[in-house]
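User: Batch of two.

Assistant: Item 1 of 2:
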Amino acid sequence: MPVIAFIVIYYVQFSQYDMGGFVEYLFGFSILTKVLSLCVLPNLGVFFLFIRRNYLLSARGILLATIIVGIGVFIVKFALQ
């Protein structure tokens, strides 16, 4: 879901750039971590959907993936400063 959200943000907001230019733009204005943090939000909907349908192991996997992406965002945030 974060990858799909990243692509949607690219096509909706920054379609005038190519993908490389988009990533350079994110690095240039130091907003990469903010965009990556927003890309994790769709996981919330999938997580609750899996909980509601009683797919508990899948929900656990979504939670783990979200935590891993969060740790990655944290590392990128402080590595760029």
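Item 2 of 2:
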Amino acid sequence: MKIIKPLLLLLFSTFCAVGQAQNNSWNGIVPLHSSREEIERLLGPSKEACRCIYKLGDDNVFVQYSGGRCAKIADPGWNVPPDTVINISVYPKTNPRFLDLNIDRTAFTKTEDREISGVFYYFNADAGTTIVVDGDTVSEFEYGPTKRDDRLRCSPSVARPS
């Protein structure tokens, strides 16, 4: 597919610039602001029954959609229309080394997985991005709501993880 290499370049350039741009978009798709229609226009319909998994040559992409305003599908729920993108998880088939990403690690909060030793989550609340690192390689890039999107949460009493 001709779209694969440009998508990969965009993915890695987004993470390289995340400290400066604070941008949680993936290929122009922005959690809590983009729709299923935009995803399907970009990637086509998913071949999976749930219509949310895309196999793109070097990556598997999972898109989570809202079930409707304040639906509890994604705790705590978001005040966005149905079929609005909530988050995008990109699983590279060839896992890059974390140190090769050349990102500003000080922009991220690092936490270790509570159950799996050696797995760390690098989370940037301002950018809405998480990088999952297993050992020294990246297993997942996640694009989610930013800190400024907290106004769209249905339950203001639920605190965003830090």
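Residues 1-22, 158-162 have pLDDT under 50 and may be disordered.
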